[in-house]
Specification:
The complex is a heterodimer.
Chain A: E1 9-10, E2 13-14, E3 26-30, E4 38-44, E5 47-58, E6 71-78, H1 93-106, E7 118-128, H2 133-147, E8 157-164, E9 167-170, H3 174-178, E10 182-189, E11 194-202, H4 206-252
Parallel strand pairs in A: 6-7
Antiparallel strand pairs in A: 1-2, 3-4, 4-5, 5-7, 8-9, 8-10, 10-11
Helix pairs in contact in A: 1-2
Chain B: H1 34-39, H2 45-54, E1 65-68, E2 73-74, E3 78-81, E4 84-87, E5 91-95, E6 99-104, E7 116-124, E8 128-132, E9 139-142, H3 143-146, E10 167-175, E11 181-184, E12 191-193, E13 197-200, H4 206-210, H5 215-224, E14 227-230, E15 235-239, H6 243-255, H7 262-269, H8 279-282, H9 291-294
Parallel strand pairs in B: 2-6, 9-11
Antiparallel strand pairs in B: 1-4, 3-4, 5-6, 7-8, 7-10, 8-9, 10-11, 10-12, 13-15, 14-15
Classes of the chains: A alpha+beta, B alpha+beta.
Chain lengths: 253, 316
Amino acid sequence: MAKTNDKLIVNGKRLDGRAFGDMRPITMRINAVDNADGSAQVSFGNTEAIVAVYGPRKLFPRFLQENDRGIMRYRYNMAPFSCTDRIRPGSSRRGTEISKTSRLAFEPVAFLNDFPTTVVDVFTEILQADGSTRVTGINAASMAIAVAGVPMRDLVAACSVGKIQGQLIVDLNGIEDNNSEADVAVAMMPTKDRVTLLQMDGVLTKDELFTLLGKARENCMRIYDMQKAAIKNSFKQNQDAEAAVEADNGEMQ
Amino acid sequence: MMRRPIRRGGFRGPGMGGGRDGGGFDREAPRENFDDRAEQPGTDGGEAAELHEHAHRIIVIPGEYIDEKKGRKLGDDVYEEGEKVFAKVLGIPVANENEIKIIPMSGVYIPGISDNVIGVMTEVGISGWTVDINSPYIAFLPVADGVDEFVDTNRTDISRFFDVSDAIFCKISKVTKNKTTRVSMRTMGARKLLGGVLMKVKPVKIPRIIGKGGSMINMIKQKTGCVIYVGKNGVVWLRGDNKAEAIEAILTIERESHTAGLTDRIARMLEGLPGAVQPAVAAAPAAEAKPVAAEPSEPAEERIERPKPGWEPERF
């Protein structure tokens, strides 16, 4: 998406009508990929990520195996059709970097020591990109890893914050991302209040950065509540089914 | 009817689950006996009863606070920070007076000592076999633990005992810190699985398939007349005329493991199949069975395949 000279803030609102501290509408669901051990699909507005997790499973080639711990492989990939411009399929400098930083966001969280010589494979596909793709991917990956049954210290919740035309904002969309003075991606362990990913692009004063981190923390907590609800509700449906079955049994008796 | 080996202490035979948390979660469990059953080490009812008690309550996600430790033992899939205990995985928390643990909702099979598993030979080596146990870790079966008698490995091609793709019912005998695993057939019930079909289910659903005290799997065996072996690693082996129905029943249990009254529904599903074992015989508890009398009626092919005594070693 190209740069624009248009105003990004009109009448105190952002282009999509949000206030500075608002996030886009968020949807989350688990078990989006049947073949995977765990999977999730998350969308932040138009940004949409689908994640499949496999493992812990045997790791080949063998020289990658670690005798005292398992490893995690994280692949971040944007679908060729995810943007208005076609994305060239295959690895890219940007994709490799985001894969690595996202993996580092999960390594302190997962108990990989419990599974020596194995690998947990996380595949993140961005189906539709409209800014904040890496944090959307991390949010989905966190749920998918939990659903796969990989032991974790906590879920990981992530969100992006930034600065456009002098205003500090939350959850940047595509056009804001491309025209921002600064953008910061933050991932954290919400119940431990620890940051696992912090990346910044652009220029901010120290005060602005700390203000943004505060906003990011607040929003990560909200995202964590949504993740929690999405996972638990999918099992709650089962419990409703259970209640229905019990009712059936009662009638029969 | 399948053979029920009896042995003093220890291993309780195939299909009965075993070890740490074999057992199912039948919802018709009488509640008043809860605590008694849960406290009996190694009984099938323990985890079942606990799950039954807790299923209606809560599901925890990784990192969620469960309880203060209060001097209790930490069981599976929990971790502590200070005095607080948190969940490591998605599952149902169980906190009783002795222990805090999680019954996980998903996950791969990680070998544990004394687990009864079904393995498939993937490689015949010089001094043993490599066994696929449906886990990130492969297991090794040494000749000494796989065959009853002395075998001179220098002179013998051990594929005469087990060849690649043979299936066995065996027991995990040793797991090291970095999960190098060894299995053994020197245990009651261990055998080569001839014919039949293998199927895989999620390892976490195995306790439900076995049922409390083996109730579910015994019912399926009785109604279908199939021989069924259930490995804790999520592999199930079946043989018999009604195996299609038995497979359907097991897949139904896996799919609907969270629902109540499953044993009854499965029983209705399998009603009236030809070849069902007479309930009077099948319902006889294992402890009262007379294995010595029962065994001669068993088809010859169901016996554990052992090399005939007096065979000649191959000489090269």
